[in-house]
Specification:
Blueprint lengths: L1 E3 L1 E3 L2 E3 L6 E6 L4 E7 L3 H20 L2 H17 L1 H12 L3 H18 L2 H4 L3 E7 L2 E9 L2 E5 L7 H12 L3 E5 L6 H13 L6 E3 L4 H9 L3 E7 L2 H14 L2 E5 L5 E4 L5 H13 L11 E4 L2 H16 L19 H16 L3 E4 L18 E4 L6 H4 L6 E4 L5 H10 L2 E2 L1 E5 L3 H10 L4 E4 L15 E2 L2 E2 L6 H7 L1 E9 L17
Parallel strand pairs: 1-5, 8-9, 8-11, 9-10, 11-12, 13-14, 13-19, 14-17, 16-17, 19-20
Antiparallel strand pairs: 2-3, 4-5, 6-7, 7-23, 12-22, 15-16, 18-21
Bound molecules: nicotinamide-adenine-dinucleotide (NAD).
Length: about 500
Amino acid sequence: MREINHFIDGKSFTGKTGRFGDIFNPNTGEVQARVQFADESELSRAVEGAKKGQRVWAAMNPQRRARVLMTYKTLVEAEMDELAHLLSTEHGKVIADSKGDIIRGLEVIEFACGVPHLMKGEYTESAGPGIDVYSMRQPLGVVAGISPFNFPAMIPMWFMGMALATGNAMVLKPSEKDPSVPVRLAELWMEAGLPEGVLQIVHGDKQAVDALLTHEDVKAVSFVGSSAIAHYIARTCTEQGKRFQAMGGAKNHGIIMPDADMDQVVNDFLGAAYGSAGERCMALPVAVPVGKDTANEFVSRMKDEAQKLRIGVSTDPDAHYGPVVTAAHKQRVEDYITLGVEEGADMLLDGRGFKLQGHENGFFIGPTLFDNVKPGMKTYEEEIFGPVLQVVRAGNLEEAAHLPSDHQYGNGVAIFTRNGLAAREFAAKVQVGMVGINVPIPVPVAYHSFGGWKRSAFTDTNQYGTEGIRFFTKIKTVTQRWPSGDIGDQAFVIPTMG
Ligand code: NAD
């Protein structure tokens, strides 16, 4: 059986704990590899190596660090097909989607190549008599990244791009469900010229995460995953006095106004609700058509079109979406579908029990569609994270807009309309962090930044963009005066500049 090792000090590192996690091929249901789980001592070893690497790396000027990032981008691009294949066969998303996962990560690397400019400080000449003030951004030291299963390339690259460019070393704890791509990405960093120890990959479960959260030399933690764990990370880092950003789960709504282009809306929902088997934190699992006619047309067309979706193995170029990641996740999604029926929503398509011919043990779920879902139902209030679209009907825009604003999650939201004023007012008022206007999955480009509100993010800084630079650096402000012979007589009072 293939074994996935840690990656410490520039090379593969075989753990000794005897603890492992199974890696499935979601297309077949078989265990295809096992990944080592670290304990506290292995984690400490990675942190020690990272401390040494960080000193070397931070001493390189930012332009030289940027050149390593540029080379890295070229190397990842050259290996795009192999990486996408590896990603598809561990995660279950189709190849085109796997490439999107890698490309969106590379966009952050590309942005981070501008680090010489992005890290520039500020300067005030003559802030007082003969006194100048300047500030600089310095790296934090060793930082941690903890990533979820659903974007095994993009999210590690969000972390790596920003943390490494700014001169930190990172210990990355990738998802234990699909860890092979992060390991390969680390190997490519070495080929690009990253000094040993600057990027360490340590696999594991809660034990490894807790060791990271409580290690005194880990100065900051960037986390992406479910809300319960994000909240735990936030609480623990607060207790430990560490800087953190912890992104959580989502339940994104798409509001459909009567004047929307229904062809575009149906097409967008097909991709955003069912693409990647619904395992995206920016998926659109809730549709809110406004008015009875809009709702009837949307529901009838979605039902027709969703039935035509091709579900296939993740490497099939004709498949629209593949299996979900594990048998346990398939069971969880199917339990939510059963609950939806029990709660009284109208089931129009039932994806439970879907079998793909020749791959009967794969973790496939058919497209599922519920109408007349109501706030208060558990299946509406909670994140399902599967190919399940729920329709909540609204009488007018005001009623529709309350739904995402009042929901516990506030990651993304979309409105489909031709009315610019309505869209503008909606975008200004809605209590959600990322808004799409006729854009179903409004993941911000790399030079803006990513972050939800409410239980979708426990943080003051978003991921990547200039927010990422702020998160991974600390400001030092220097006030300087050079001796001129004029000593003055103010030595015993608080200095003022006047
Ligand atoms: P998860 O919370 O189960 O796991 C995320 C990370 O936390 C993994 O590395 C995992 O090993 C670790 N972990 C799991 N249980 C832990 C515990 N008890 N203590 C400490 N660490 C633990 O999330 P997942 O299932 O891998 O990913 C899906 C979730 O991530 C969904 O909720 C999705 O919405 C969310 N997500 C959010 C964003 C965002 O930016 N807001 C992006 C992608 C995914």
